[in-house]
Each structure stands twice: as C-alpha cells, then as structure tokens.
Amino acid sequence: MRGDIQVCVDGNFNHRHLRSAGDSPKFYEPEYVLPKEYIDAVGARIEGLRKTRKPRPRKPVVLDEAVDECESSHTAGRGSNIKTNMEKFDDGGLMALVCRHDIPLFLANIDTPGEQQKYAVAM
Fold first, then answer.
1. Contact 15, 88 (CB under 8 A)
2. What is the rounded CA–CA span in Å between residue 86 and residue 92?
3. pLDDT tens digits, residue range 56-91?
4. Is the pTM of this model over 0.70?
5. Under a CB-based contact definition with an 8 Å cutoff, are residues 116 and 39 in contact?
6. d(Cα 100, Cα 11) in Å, to the nearest integer?
7. Centroid of chain to Cα 94
8. Which string of DSSP letters, residue by residue, matches 56-122?
9. How far is CA 76 from CA 49, 54, 83, in A?
C-alpha cells in the first residue's frame, strides 16, 4: 500500500490552560487551531454512527496477543487513566496533526479526558 502523504497525530498534555486564569482579550484568530464546535460536532457524529451501525465482520491480520501486549504497554489517557485534571484546566493539552517532517498542520485543544477519536478524525 502506498499513500500520497504521511501524517501523525499525537497529544501533548503539557500545554494546558488554568480554568481560574480566565479568558484573555481576543487579539488574533488562529489559522491552524480547529474550533471546539467543529471538534465536538465530529465527536457527536462518531457517537451517532456507533449507535446506528453494527461493526462489520473482519479477519484480523495481527494476532490478538500482539494487540493485547501493545495495549497493555501503552499509557495513553483513557477514561480511567486521566493525564490532566479537567476540573482544574479548561484546556487539558494540545492534539497535533504533523507531517513526516514534524511540521504541524493542524492543532486542537484537548478538552475531554481519555482517548478521543474525534480529534484525529476532525484533523
């Protein structure tokens, strides 16, 4: 399989915004940060499709044991493994879509705990 582009999506939980700091005056419109409304709309569509569509039967290529070992070694923020206290922060980090040269193409503020597919799909 050969693609036209190669991209990577990753979250950084060190770029946070304290809820108590309030909002600063708006002085520019970020071009590469996707709006929260768009991200949330994508998330709602994903959830809606999950409720209405049954999963297609598939034949896995990778052994279940390999997938299980990968999942157990990965420390992404899940619902039970939260990396940022969302009560304290209104933006818990940044999700970025970067090209293979590590140049950011799009960014999104992380505002929900756990792994969220909506960020990658929206970008």
1. no
2. 6
3. 888 888 888 888 887 777 665 444 445 556 666 666
4. no
5. no
6. 16
7. 8
8. PP---SS-HHHHHHHHHH-----SSS-SS-TTTEEE-EEEEEEETTS-EEEEEEE-SSS--HHHHHH
9. 24, 26, 8
Tell me the backbone φ, ψ of residue 70, rounded to 5 degrees.
Answer: -65, -45
Q: What is the pLDDT at residue 65?
A: 85
Q: Are 16 and 90 contacting, i.e. CB atoms less than 8 angstroms apart?
A: no
The residues pairing with 110 across neighbouring beta strands, listed in sequence order, are 93
Among residues 71, 89, 81, 78, which one has the least CA distance to residue 17? 89
Task: Work out the average pLDDT over 12-28.
Answer: 68
Question: Which of 10-14, 29-33, 71-75, 110-114 bottoms out in mean pLDDT, i.e. has the lowest?
Answer: 71-75
Q: In what order do the strands lie in the sheet with 7-12?
A: 7-12, 93-99, 104-110
Q: Which residue has the tokens 């960014």?
A: 107
